Amino acid sequence: MNSLGQMMRHLATLSLVYLLRFTNQSLFPTTTVLLATYCCIGVSFIHVADATEGEQKQELTAGKLRSLGEVALSERKFPEAESYYKQAIQVEPDNAMNYYKLYSVHKRMRSLSEALDDITKAVALKVEKTDWRILKAKLLVDFGRCDEAHVEYMEARKYAKDEKQAKQTVDGARDSKSCADLTVRALEAYQKEDWRQAVLNFNQVLAYTLDTPDLLFMKAQSEYYTKDYYGVVSDTGKLLKNYPKHIEAYQLRGEAYFRLNDMEMAVKHFREGLKLDPEHKGCKQGHKILKKITKKDKKGDDFFEKGEYQEAIGRWWEAMNTDITLLSFVRPTLLKVVKAHLKLKEYEKAIEEAKKHVDNEESIEGLHALGEAQIAAEKYDEALRTYQRAMEIAPDDKKRECQQKVEEAQTALKQSKEKNYYKILGVPRNAAQKEIKKAYRDLALKWHPDKNADNKEEAEKMFQDISEAYEVLSDKEMRAKYDRGEDVFENQGGGGGQRRHHMDPNMFFQQHFRQGGGGGHHRGGGGQRMHFRYG
Q1: Is the pLDDT of residue 470 over 90?
Q2: Can you list the alpha helix ranges (DSSP code H) found in 109-206?
Q3: CA 497 centroid distance within chain
Q4: Strand, coil or helix: what is 210?
Q5: Is 314 exposed, middle or buried (0-12, 13-18, 19+ CB in 10 A)?
Q6: What is the four-CA torsion angle of 223, 226, 231, 235, rounded to 10 degrees?
């Protein structure tokens, strides 16, 4: 906003221009006199205006500025209050109260570094102010400068005016000394790579402090080496909230998410770090390895969906071998490998891979995968023990699922001592209907009595068993009963030899091969590619 003097100058100039433009030249002498008179009057007004403005400036004393600052502060107009107190300092640079007032504003604005500078200057100008020294010491503790805070508390004690202040200085000196000692211990443990002790000591130090990014980052690093990745995510999150350009925090948080197998969040943090520094070595390397793993894992998933199980296994192992220590990725991927081996009917290999998972660390998922592989390999006693172990370690919300697995294993064990329809058809217990039907057609063609004149008696028995197995397993209700260990035929009892299926095996065969022997033989040829393996 223009001052009064400036306004008067502008008016005088404009008036002169108009007089010269519209005055007749014949009246020039008279005009000259008028102009001279007007200029004198204008100059007088300008001098008066300047003098008035100067008086107004002189009225804004340091005290007045402090008062205006108080009003602005009470109205939470912090930038305005800050401006008034800074002006007061310019007027009275040696007045300690001005710096104390500015400290109050910066503290409210959470500008703690500026607040510490202000209170330090205030104390330097008025060394006997115990309460100010205490405020300074508290800020020093907030910044983790506990040894300096201890010195300040000891100085403040010399000037304590009453018992309350004396107690504050004594308590403060004790706490700041404890904080300083713990900081030394934390740094020593950190340097010795005693990570668990470092985390413990850093936690104790951070309980005293408020703004110590270096200590918080070292704590997060220590947590990473103790494999407390959730702790890393929490602490680096706090750090990045106050220091959003902390590249090392982005890298460390990305590494923690990577170890937690949260690849999406890991990529996000590596990229944030690279935005700040495109050549940052740690973020570049982390991003590169992560993309390599996820790409190979995705290819493995795609091969599995297409039924190319061997290719899927290969891609998954390539992904795991990129960083075999990345257990949060390796463990679930190993279970996918187990499923692929089961699809290939490589049951011993499936057991081997499942045992790797369980030997590393027991889990419900790993034990269930091992039990499934053991049942597929007809190792029913082992499968039952495996499922029982899963039941032992299962939390309450998993007990029912685990109990069901135990019962399934008990049923499979019982059936293995009688007539095992799955074994007869050479299919796993979780086989789909399409697989069961194909196995029946291939085996029925192979063991049809008309094609086995040399061993007709054995062929008839096998042909009957194959038809009986298919009758049960192709019917949803009968298969469910069989899987539960219930009788599937009326008057069924005793040994497996007493079981009778409802339909004559030859009629049953003819019903399923109505399209002619040619079609059946063609399917039989296709069956050779299935590579059934028998116990």
Answers
A1: yes
A2: 112-125, 130-142, 146-158, 163-191, 195-206
A3: 59
A4: coil
A5: middle
A6: 10
Instruction: Report how far residue 102's alpha carbon sits from residue 84's, in angstroms, rounded to the nearest whole number.
Output: 9
- Count Cβ atoms within 10 A of the Cβ of residue 222 and give its class: 0-12 exposed, 13-18 middle, 19 or more buried: buried
Tokens (6 digits) for 296? 């190979």
| 8 A C-beta contact, residue 203 and residue 226 | no
Length of the chain: 535
* CA dist 467 → 259, 313, 419, 446, 500 (Å): 52, 35, 13, 12, 11
User: Position of tokens 């404009």?
Assistant: 14
**Residue with the two structure tokens 């061993």:** 455
Q: Are 26 and 48 in contact (CB under 8 A)?
A: no
Nearest CA-CA partner of 462 in 429, 505, 502: 505
Please give the torsion angle defined by the CA atoms of residues 256, 262, 264 and 268, in that order, rounded to the nearest 10 degrees: -10
Q: For residues 78 and 108, what is the distance between their CA atoms, to the nearest angstrom?
A: 8
C-alpha closest to that of 237 among 252, 222, 259: 252
Q: How many CB atoms lie within 10 A of CB 85?
A: 28
- Rounded CA-CA distance 32/22 in Å is 13
What are 13-54's pLDDT values in tens digits?
Answer: 545 444 444 444 444 444 444 444 444 444 454 444 444 444
Amino acid identity of residue 96, one-letter, is A
Single-letter amino acid code for the residue at 146:
C
Alpha carbon of residue 16 to chain centroid = 75
Question: Burial code of 184-213, b = ≥16 C-beta within 10 A, e = fewer?
Answer: ebbbebbeeeebebbbbbbebbbebbeebe
**What is the separation, in whole angstroms, between the first and last Cα of the chain?**
98
Give the residue from 380, 399, 411 showing the smallest Cα distance to 480. 411
Instruction: Please state, rounded to an integer, the average pLDDT across all residues of the chain.
Output: 85
**Which two tokens mark 127?**
């060394």
For 411-434, give the DSSP string. Answer: HHHHHHTS--HHHHHT--TT--HH
**Helix, strand, or coil (residue 361):** coil
Place of tokens 């209170």: 119
> Would you state the pLDDT for residue 453?
83
Confidence band of 504 (pLDDT split at 50, 70, 90) = low
Q: 194 near 203, Cβ under 8 Å?
A: no
| Alpha helices, DSSP H, located in 260-326 | 263-276, 281-305, 309-322
> How many CA atoms lie less than 13 Å away from 459 in the CB half-sphere?
14
**Rounded CA separation 146/215 (Å):** 13
Provide the greatest CA pair distance for the chain.
151
Does the pLDDT of residue 55 top 70, yes or no?
A: no
Rounded to 10 degrees, the C-alpha dihedral 444/447/448/451 comes to: 140
Per residue in 313-370, pLDDT (tens digit) is 999 999 999 999 999 999 999 999 999 999 999 999 999 999 999 999 999 999 999 9
Q: What is the DSSP string of 41-52?
A: HHHHHHHHHHHH
**Separation of alpha carbons 170 and 175, rounded Å:** 9
Both tokens of 363, joined, read: 């889990």
- CB distance 135 to 119 below 8 Å: yes
